[in-house]
């Protein structure tokens, strides 16, 4: 992973303190553009190619990260040597997907929601 600089640390501290904070508010607090915030957050996880998705969440967790591991040993190395070494990560909880039954994308826009609701 590239070095985490003082701006990265500040961004992580803000986001860890409030995972629901809009990027524009983080940008305002840090004195940089919203695009810079987005790029820096992306860069901090793109160094781990096994990570395929990263979501900010509601509830007790800050983020949900989906990653692929070859086996349990690979998963443990990713968690212990990579994910948990990221400054600001205080813990992880792991769920393993055994299989999936639905894999689809749906349009999310006001017109589509009305169409689905009426059917």
Q: Main beta sheet: strand number and arrangement?
A: 2 strands, antiparallel
In what range is the share of β-strand residues? 5-15%
Low-pLDDT regions: none
Number of strands: 2
User: Strands of the biggest beta sheet: in what spatial order?
Assistant: 1-2
Please, how many helices? 5
Morphology call: globular
Following the backbone from N to C, one meets helices and strands in this order, namely: HHHEEHH
Helix content: 40-55%
What would you call the structural class? mainly alpha
Distance between the termini: 49 Å
Rg:
17 Å
List keywords for this structure.
5 helices, single chain
Can you walk me through this structure?
The chain has 119 residues and is mostly helical. The protein contains 5 helices and 2 strands. The longest helix is centred in the middle third of the chain and has 13 residues.
Write the layout of secondary structure elements.
Layout: H1 6-17, H2 23-30, H3 34-46, E1 51-56, E2 63-67, H4 72-82, H5 110-118
How do you describe this structure in short?
With 119 residues, the protein is mainly alpha-helical. It has helices at 6-17, 23-30, 34-46, 72-82, 110-118; strands spanning 51-56, 63-67. Helices cover 45% and strands 9% of the residues.
């Amino acid at each position: 992973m590239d070095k985490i600089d003082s701006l990265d640390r500040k961004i992580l501290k803000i986001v860890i303190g409030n995972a629901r904070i809009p990027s524009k508010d983080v940008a305002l607090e840090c004195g940089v553009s919203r695009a810079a915030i987005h790029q820096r957050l992306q860069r901090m996880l793109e160094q781990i190619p096994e990570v395929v998705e990263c979501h900010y969440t509601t509830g007790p967790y800050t983020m949900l990260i989906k990653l692929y591991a070859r086996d349990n040993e690979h998963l443990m190395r990713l968690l212990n040597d990579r994910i948990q070494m990221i400054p600001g990560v205080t813990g992880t909880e792991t769920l393993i997907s055994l299989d999936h039954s639905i894999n689809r994308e749906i349009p999310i826009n006001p017109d589509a929601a009305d169409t689905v609701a009426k059917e």
